[in-house]
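Lecture 7, part 2: worked example. A protein chain together with iron/sulfur cluster.
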Amino acid sequence: MITRLNVHRQSADWQRALAQAVTDPEELFQRLALDPALLPAALKASEQFRVRVPLGYLGRMTPGDPNDPLLLQVLPLAEECLEIPGFQCDPVGDLESMPIPGLLHKYHGRVLLVTSGACAIHCRYCFRRHFPYRDASAIREAWPQILMYLRTHEEVREIILSGGDPLTLSDDKLAAMVSDLAGIPHLRTLRLHSRLPVVLPERIDDTLLGWLTGTRLRPIMVIHANHARELDGTTRAAMERLELAGVRLFNQTVLLRGINDDADALAMLNHALFDSGVQPYYLHMLDPVQGAAHFAVTEEHALTLMKQLSRQLPGYLIPRLVREVPGHDSKTQIAHSPHAVEGFSL
Ligand code: SF4
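Predicted complex, written out as structure tokens:
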């Protein structure tokens, strides 16, 4: 039974975990016994995009290993300060597709809302690391205008809550938002994109499940896991709670040099996702955002990885390799469907 006391305790648990995240590069170096010679560069890079790592996620890293695949996702490096041609502040044309601040309408039938600029973790490869959240958040003054836009666009069936990370918002705010959205008859699906089930699994509590599954909208959650080591007993328990409550779970991975650009790492990730009840969905080429060029993997290598994966995994565990091209009316698939990849087996 959910009591008021339980609700407060759960909410305090995840909010405490969120507040206790490491935000000081020096502390990150100390906790993980990293080479202090790299600290000045980390401090400089973190001036542009701050460090943020939840303690639970940090606890899955191996101290003293500068190549830990979880560490590399959050460690600021000197390379971030280089200006590389072709890498931009708005790599996927978000600002061009925003008829109202915080509302992105790129694809037929789906609308994305930038609900928050906050995240539980700061991923160094983030394609929205330069996004002007202050001027473009859907929950500020623009909310009545957004509801009006959705009411008059009857072709929209699916609403996507994104950010930042929507699950950094309070349950009260999210519940009110979902209740307004559920009042628009042609909306059918509520999709959340969140990294919190992976990096702060405490967030998946009874209160969250209450508003997420207590709506007439069909709930979907896309978690963003990039490496099998990100998934452990705590994240599995979070996914299980979501799955049991009726939330469909999908995963989107960013292909990242030095982190998961290897067939064995990707195969292990997709097995671990399946063990957690999560369906692999997209393997995303890096969006060319300024400061993240050192994570880029070539298309040629990505296609080789897809071939290797097709030999190692059943078809239902193979994500689609895609990239986002600004102005296109869907994601661009790079390989054909897994069924067309050589050696595919069910
Ligand atoms: S959680 Fe998502 S939005 Fe937030 S920094 Fe990471 S990639 Fe960017």
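The radius of gyration is 20 Å. The beta strands are 103-104, 110-114, 158-162, 189-194, 218-223, 248-254, 279-284, 320-323, 332-333. Keep this in mind for problem set question 3.
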